[in-house]
């Protein structure tokens, strides 16, 4: 699954082409992705202008000129293309895609500065989806989400309140999207290592100092991944043509048996399974 940094990389790549653009024509090449496209989806988009492209957790959220919301999730293999070029994440486009046979959605836009822009969506495995919400309508995907880890809503005070009394492991609690939105398995492992907290600890037992280390660590691992974004993925994709997730830049994720990268630690990274997901951590410096 793409994690928050990949989705943010796509958002930043796409925004300059579609913000301010008018949607002239939309063509759907099949009735559904993971879910059916909304009723009259093409007609509903045509004639509207994309005012803003935002992100909420792992959803791309385009706000249209009348306040309606066009939501997209990339699933596992979804990618937006401008012209015939994938937007800032070529690792998602395998060789099979070059034929265009996995392009399920196409739109012709008119951008005020760039002129005509052709936008398409490719998704070989079709775990992605799109939906459309009227202004102010309830959104079952984004309404239940907690605050964004890169926004101002997640601070030590907030997190302390959410962890209080929780008996579950901190690793699992941090993956709860109602606590923090968009934080995935890889970055929870990385943030816990960076803040030297054992992923098995009961969430409610973290003290003030630990929470004050954890909050900026979450922000830093995500920001570092976003900063590494496009170019890292491009190089990685060229190497073996497979999707890649910044693997070489992780401190613990995927590094079972490797020495802990913390200077002077001397520990060895272990892998355990918590709530069905792999956790990588250093049993020496994380306690
Ligand atoms: Zn260590």
Structural class: alpha+beta
The number of domains is 2
Major beta-sheet overview: 5 strands, antiparallel
Strand fraction equals 15-25%
| CATH level 4 superfamily of the largest domain | MutM-like, N-terminal
- How many helices in DSSP terms? 6
Mean pLDDT across all amino acids: 89
Q: Identify every distinct bound molecule in the structure, by name, code or SMILES.
A: zinc ion
What's the quick description here?
The chain has helices at 4-18, 41-45, 156-163, 170-175, 185-194, 208-240; strands at residues 22-28, 50-56, 59-64, 69-73, 79-82, 85-86, 103-111, 115-122, 129-133, 270-274, 277-281. With 287 residues, the chain is of the alpha+beta class.
What features would you describe in this structure?
- With 287 residues, this protein is α+β, with helices and mostly antiparallel strands.
- 27% of the residues lie in helices and 22% in strands.
- It has two domains: 4-133, MutM-like, N-terminal (N-terminal domain of MutM-like DNA repair proteins, Alpha-Beta Barrel); 156-281, Helicase, Ruva Protein, domain 3 (Orthogonal Bundle).
- A hairpin with a 3-residue loop joins β7 and β8 (115-122).
- The structure holds zinc ion.
- Residues 260, 262, 265, 267, 282, 284-285 line the site of zinc ion (ZN).
Topology:
Blueprint: H1 4-18, E1 22-28, H2 41-45, E2 50-56, E3 59-64, E4 69-73, E5 79-82, E6 85-86, E7 103-111, E8 115-122, E9 129-133, H3 156-163, H4 170-175, H5 185-194, H6 208-240, E10 270-274, E11 277-281
Helix pairs in contact: 1-6, 5-6
């Amino acid at each position: 699954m793409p994690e928050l940094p990949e989705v943010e990389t796509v958002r930043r790549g796409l925004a300059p082409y579609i913000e301010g653009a008018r949607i002239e024509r939309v063509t759907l090449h099949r009735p559904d992705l993971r879910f059916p496209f909304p009723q009259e989806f093409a007609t509903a988009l045509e004639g509207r202008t994309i005012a803003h492209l935002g992100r909420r957790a792992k959803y791309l959220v385009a706000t249209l000129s009348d306040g309606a919301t066009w939501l997209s999730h990339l699933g596992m293999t979804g990618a937006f293309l401008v012209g015939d070029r994938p937007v800032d994440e070529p690792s998602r486009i395998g060789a099979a895609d070059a034929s265009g046979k996995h392009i399920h959605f196409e739109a012709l836009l008119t951008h005020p500065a760039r002129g005509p822009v052709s936008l398409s969506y490719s998704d070989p495995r079709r775990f992605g989806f799109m939906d459309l919400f009227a202004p102010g309508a309830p959104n079952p995907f984004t309404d239940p989400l907690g605050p964004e880890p890169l926004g101002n809503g997640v601070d030590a005070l907030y997190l302390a309140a959410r962890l209080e009394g929780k008996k579950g492991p901190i690793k699992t609690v941090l993956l709860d999207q109602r606590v923090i939105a968009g934080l995935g398995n890889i970055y929870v492992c990385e943030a816990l290592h960076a803040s030297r907290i054992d992923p098995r600890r009961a969430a409610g037992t973290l003290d003030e100092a630990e929470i004050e280390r954890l909050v900026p660590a979450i922000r830093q691992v995500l920001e570092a991944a976003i900063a590494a974004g496009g170019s890292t993925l491009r190089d990685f994709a060229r190497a073996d043509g497979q999707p890649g997730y910044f693997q070489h830049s992780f401190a613990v994720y995927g590094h079972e048996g490797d020495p802990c990268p913390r200077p002077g630690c001397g520990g060895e990274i272990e892998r355990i399974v918590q709530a069905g997901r792999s956790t990588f951590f250093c049993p020496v410096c994380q306690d």
